[in-house]
Write a structure and sequence with these properties.
This protein is mainly α and 157 residues long. The radius of gyration is 20 Å and the shape is globular.
Length: 157
């Protein structure tokens, strides 16, 4: 698979999450006809006046959208520690002092596992591309990274 295809998957994920956020926030287009502009508008609610449930709706919408894409919630501290330890056992260059980035990439990899459940080669290649940066990982290392992701972040996928 080409790098462009990986970007398409990530771009689609970003679009889906953005759409969920917009829908949950209940945003509408600004502006309108001259008639609507001449009517007095309703006063805005003061900052912080929203109910707790209204403020949580965008987060829930994002979590729901991620769940539909096979992206699990952020792991708890113990799960994250086990995941980071598994990656460090493969190569210290994977996490490289940036555990949040490793978790983010792992969660995205769960989306790939979910989207391509019968295409293991695609899962491995996407994992290799996603985790490679300054250090390029080979297919054997990507296979191990994929297994660590699957084991610790998304065992149900």
């Amino acid at each position: 698979m080409s790098t462009g295809q990986g970007r398409i998957v990530n771009h689609r994920t970003a679009i889906a999450l953005s759409a969920a956020l917009v829908a949950a926030a209940g945003l509408t287009a600004c502006g309108g006809s001259a008639k609507s502009e001449s009517r007095p508008s309703a006063p805005s609610a003061p900052a912080g006046a929203g109910s707790p449930s209204a403020e949580q709706e965008p987060s829930k919408a994002i979590a729901d959208a991620e769940a539909r894409l096979g992206i699990p919630p952020k792991p708890d501290a113990a799960t994250q520690a086990r995941y980071i330890a598994a990656l460090d056992a493969i190569s210290r260059d994977i996490v490289n002092g940036k555990p949040e980035r490793a978790v983010s990439r792992g969660r995205s990899t769960c989306g790939t596992i979910h989207s391509f459940p019968k295409d293991h080669a695609k899962q491995v290649e996407q994992t290799r591309q996603r985790f490679s940066g300054a250090t390029q990982f080979n297919a054997a290392q990507a296979e191990k990274i994929l297994q660590a992701v699957h084991t610790h972040l998304c065992p149900k996928n």
